[in-house]
């Protein structure tokens, strides 16, 4: 089953059709909004979960996928979640620095620098300097493009007063300064994907399985240096080589990455009045956890939505729905 949208890099039906032909299986194609996905009052009665989760925003689409699966006679929906994180697809991965960390300066470093430069799009000189600086450093390090660290709509005083990230950060990201920088970045990705892939309770649904997200595969990929995972200067280079006899060439050699940005932007734009009321008049705003002044211009009708605002907005919506579910009158009476 392939989900597609109409925006740039969002229609991957050509690749899906090639994969289906190679496997000799039926392909179901469905536009992302075909199931009536909306950000509206249908979100206001979510199931109770242990913590906020973005899945609360897409329950309507989950129901749609389940119907498609049942109509096709499928008992399980298998996904490819985790491939980027396990086999490494990240332009900021300092694989050359990992080589220096483990081997120092040797003749093979020249090849690793070329491959790192091809993945990152940086000059050889920039990669070499970074490889030496990061490869020999054992100081704490934060990736320059760590989107997970940016929380533009949260009021600073709502965070721990001492600024200690131990209470908000994933424990896997702590005490890792003695590891190669590329491995530190890969571990950050592991923490993110395991958090995102955590399921929420539902009834009478088709099971969803993420076969790549498994402990044995995680441990294997952690043992493999990043400069080998990116062999050949391609994202997921080692995986491409391993599966070269199983994949159509157009899939194995592609460098693009599909996304759903235009779909999510449209969900916000088409339902901006509901989103605005939910966030600016919600529990998080009343408790001064989110910054209403920062959110106000972002959730105003007719204003363009920048890509860097998408995930923070999804996080705010998820948290607001979760708080409302926890404080529902029926739950208080049950308690």
What structural category characterises the helix and strand content? mainly alpha
Question: What is the tally of beta strands?
Answer: 4
What is the N-to-C order of secondary-structure elements (H for helix, E for strand)?
EHEHEHHHHHEHHHHHHHHHH
The separation of the N and C termini measures: 42 Å
Mean of residue pLDDT values = 86
Number of helices: 17
The main sheet comes to: 2 strands, parallel
Whole-number count of domains: 2
What share of the residues lie within helices? Answer: 40-55%
Radius of gyration: 22 Å
Morphology call: globular
Provide the β-strand percentage band.
under 5%
How do the strands and helices of this protein lay out in sequence?
Blueprint (H helix, E strand, L loop, with lengths): L1 E3 L8 H11 L5 E3 L27 H13 L4 E3 L4 H5 L7 H9 L5 H12 L3 H13 L44 H17 L9 E3 L5 H9 L2 H4 L7 H6 L6 H4 L8 H10 L1 H9 L2 H4 L5 H4 L14 H17 L2 H6 L1
Parallel strand pairs: 1-2, 3-4
Helix pairs in contact: 4-5, 4-6, 5-6
Molecular structure report:
The structure is a single chain. With 335 residues, the protein is mainly alpha-helical. The chain has 2 domains: 151 residues, no CATH class; 172 residues, no CATH class. The strands form 2 sheets. The chain has a two-stranded parallel sheet. Strands 3-4 form a two-stranded parallel sheet. β1, α1 and β2 form a beta-alpha-beta unit. α4 packs antiparallel against α5, α4 packs across α6 and α5 crosses α6. The relative contact order is 0.17.
């Amino acid at each position: 089953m392939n989900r597609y949208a109409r925006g740039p890099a969002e229609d991957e039906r050509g690749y899906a059709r090639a994969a289906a032909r190679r496997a000799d299986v039926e392909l179901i194609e469905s536009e992302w909004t075909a199931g009536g996905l909306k950000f509206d009052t249908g979100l206001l009665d979510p199931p109770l979960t242990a913590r906020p989760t973005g899945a609360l925003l897409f329950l309507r689409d989950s129901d749609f996928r389940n119907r498609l699966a049942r109509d096709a006679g499928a008992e399980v929906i298998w996904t490819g979640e985790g491939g980027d994180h396990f086999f490494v697809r990240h332009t900021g991965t300092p694989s050359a620095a990992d080589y220096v960390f483990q081997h120092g300066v040797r003749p093979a470093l020249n090849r690793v620098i070329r491959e790192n430069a091809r993945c990152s799009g940086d000059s050889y000189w920039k990669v070499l300097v970074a490889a030496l600086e990061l490869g020999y450093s054992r100081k704490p390090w934060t990736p320059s493009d760590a989107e997970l660290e940016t929380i533009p709509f949260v009021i600073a005083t709502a965070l721990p007063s001492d600024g200690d990230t131990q209470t908000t950060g994933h424990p896997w990201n702590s005490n890792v300064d003695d590891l190669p920088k590329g491995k530190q970045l890969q571990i950050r990705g592991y923490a993110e994907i395991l958090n995102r892939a955590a399921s929420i309770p539902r009834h009478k649904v088709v099971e969803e399985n993420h076969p790549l997200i498994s402990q044995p595969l995680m441990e294997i990929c952690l043992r493999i240096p990043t400069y080998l995972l990116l062999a050949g200067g391609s994202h997921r280079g080692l995986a491409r080589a391993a599966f070269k006899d199983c994949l159509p060439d157009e899939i194995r050699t592609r460098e693009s990455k599909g996304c759903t940005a235009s779909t999510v932007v449209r969900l916000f734009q088409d339902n901006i009045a509901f989103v605005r009321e939910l966030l600016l008049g919600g529990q998080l705003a009343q408790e001064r956890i989110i910054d209403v002044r920062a959110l106000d211009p972002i959730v105003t009708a007719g204003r363009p939505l920048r890509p860097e605002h998408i995930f923070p907005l999804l996080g705010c919506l998820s948290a607001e729905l979760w708080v409302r579910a926890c404080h529902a009158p029926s739950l208080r009476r049950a308690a």
